[in-house]
Amino acid sequence: MQTSPIIVYLLVLDLVSRIKRLDSTTSAQESTPSSCPRCGSSHTVKNSHIHNGKPKHLCKNCGRQYTINPIKSEVSSETKQLINKLLLERISLKGITRVTGVSWSWLQNYVNDKLSQIPRQIKVQLNQKGN
After folding, report:
1. Which pTM value belongs to this model?
2. What domain range includes position 59?
3. Are 44 and 30 in contact (CB under 8 A)?
4. pLDDT digits (tens, 9 = 90+) for 21-75
5. CA distance to 13, 14, 47, per residue, from 27 (Å)
6. Count of domains for the chain
7. I need a surface site. Which of 2, 81, 85, 113 has the fewest CB within 10 A?
8. Which whole-number Å values give the CA distances from 86 to 5, 108, 115, in the listed order?
9. Angle, vertex CA 37, rays to CA 70 and CA 21, nearest 5
10. Tens digit of pLDDT for each residue in 82-119?
């Protein structure tokens, strides 16, 4: 069964019009001024782009870099509690990433931050020999 060239032409026209509409809506969303998620300031500028082409923004007040409508969201507190329990059980980091769905690099940074919060104090006692 062969498809008629007219049907193919109409399908291509429909596809092109859908792509143009999609491009116009995404460019309108990207050009709207945004506010900083940290401090709420609207004094932001575009600052390069991320790996998939979405523009990054830089807040001039607090210096935070962010994207509008990020694909990934923050890790919930429940997931962090689960990670803390799994770390106490001495499960490997790769195993924890498989169970919780967080990235390995995020988990490594989380563990490093937790480790840096632990005070590092060594108590040294000098034993004096009898005089």
Report:
1. 0.46
2. 34-71
3. no
4. 666 555 544 444 578 888 989 899 998 888 888 899 999 999 999 888 877 778 8
5. 21, 20, 16
6. 2
7. 2
8. 60, 14, 15
9. 40
10. 999 999 998 899 999 999 989 999 999 999 999 998 88
37: closest CA among 77, 13, 64, 60? 64
One-letter amino acid for residue 81 of the chain: Q
- Taking only the tens place, the pLDDT of each residue in 113-131 is 999 988 888 778 888 877 6
Cα separation, 100 vs 80, in Å, equals: 9
Same structural domain, 66 and 84: no
Domain membership flag for residue 8:
no
pLDDT digit string, tens, across residues 1-17? 566 677 766 666 777 77
